Structures are given as structure tokens and as C-alpha cells.
Amino acid sequence: MRIVLVGPPGAGKGTQAAFLAKNLSIPHISTGDLFRANISQGTDLGKQARAFMDAGRLVPDEVTIAMAKDRMAQPDAVNGFLLDGFPRNVGQAVALDETLRSEGVKLDAVLDLEVPEDEVVKRIAGRRICRNDSSHVFHVTYNQPKTEGVCDACGGELYQRDDDTEETVRTRLEVYHTQTEPIIDYYRSQGLVVTISALGKVTEVTDRAMAALKSDEG
């Protein structure tokens, strides 16, 4: 299957993408991984991206599209893939359609993870990260440390990242509504959108997504 995963920040796209890709035996292709791989490998595209990022500018669509095109051409993606974070706007969606059409293939589904805005704010603004090890993540509601402000694993100080504050989260949501959400309507006009609730346990959401994709495929 060839799937695009969309949803607001805090919807759990990365987590769901990993589980779904494994269940469907297709590669998980995320924009973040594309940038990191190209930059670390010193590819021409990576150098272009780094130049924009170092200058504090957004990486142009054409660079992102070229990275995604290269990745989708790899042998492990021949029979399908799950795109996470791409396309990010309608222009990228149109470019993706053109790329797939030139290869004689098309998308099978666009999985839309739906989460109420207040829940998104609660999920992200409640995160607390360990200063000693950023892989140690807690939450003031869903995953509380034994001692407030202290990491269970190493005793490090827990803090809230600047981009996790409520004000920043609401700004990120506005960007999502303005730039990314329109691709849902774009794909809905093609009959590709499958919307599911992203509320509940991770496994429940994964099961819900798999059932919806199988139903859509059938």
C-alpha cells in the first residue's frame, strides 16, 4: 500500500507510522529522517537543505520533494510506503501525484488522524523532558514521574521545552490549519481520505487505523 499519514502536531503520527509500517511491511518515510539522512550523508540535496537551515530559512518545497522522490525510488519502497510529514502543503501533494503518475502508480489512502485541539494542547504542553537524556519523556497527566520535576531513570531535572508551551503549540496548530490541513480536502476530492480518531491507547489507534485501511482497500 502507498499511504500518506496526516494529522495535527500531537496526534501521534510518528508512533502510529512506525506501527503501521511494520504491520503493513512497508517503509516508514518521514520528512525528519529524510533531512537527517541527506545531511549526514553529505548529498547535494542535504547540502542545499543545510544551507537554508543554517540561514534560518525554510527548506524550499523543491528540495523536500526531490528528497522524497529519491527515497521512494529505493528498492524497499517499490511495493509501497507510508509517508509521514510529506506532503506538507497542497503544492507538495500535487508534486507527489505527478511523481507517482510518472511511475505508473498512485496512492491507496490518506489516513487522517483526528484529535480535538484542546487534547493536542494538553498532550504537548504537558510533556516534560529530562535535561540529562532527552529520550526520558514524562507527562504531567499521562506519565507522571514518581517525584515531581525529577526523572525516574536518572534523577535529572525535568523541564518543558520552549516549543512545548501552550502558546507555541497553538501557533503550530495555526500553521497546520493554514498550510497542511488543505491537503485533506485536496485528497478527499480524490476519494482517498480515511479519517479515524487518534484518541485512546496507542494499540487501540493502530487497530482502528488497520481496520479502516482494510475496509477502504476492500
How would you describe this protein?
- The protein is an alpha/beta fold and 218 residues long.
- The chain has nine helices and eight strands.
- The strands form two sheets. It has a five-stranded parallel β-sheet with strand order 2-3-1-4-8, sandwiched between helices. The chain has a three-stranded antiparallel β-sheet with strand order 6-5-7.
- Strand 5 and strand 6 form a beta hairpin.
- The longest helix is centred in the C-terminal third of the chain and has 16 residues.
- The two termini are 12 Å apart.
- The model has no long low-confidence stretch (mean pLDDT 94).
Brief summary of the model shown:
This protein is of the alpha/beta class and 218 residues long.
Reconstruct the topology from this structure.
Elements: E1 2-6, H1 13-24, E2 28-30, H2 31-41, H3 44-54, H4 61-72, E3 81-84, H5 90-102, E4 109-114, H6 117-125, E5 127-130, E6 137-139, E7 158-159, H7 166-180, H8 182-188, E8 193-197, H9 202-217
Parallel strand pairs: 1-3, 1-4, 2-3, 4-8
Antiparallel strand pairs: 5-6, 5-7
Helix pairs in contact: 1-9, 2-3, 2-4, 4-5, 6-7
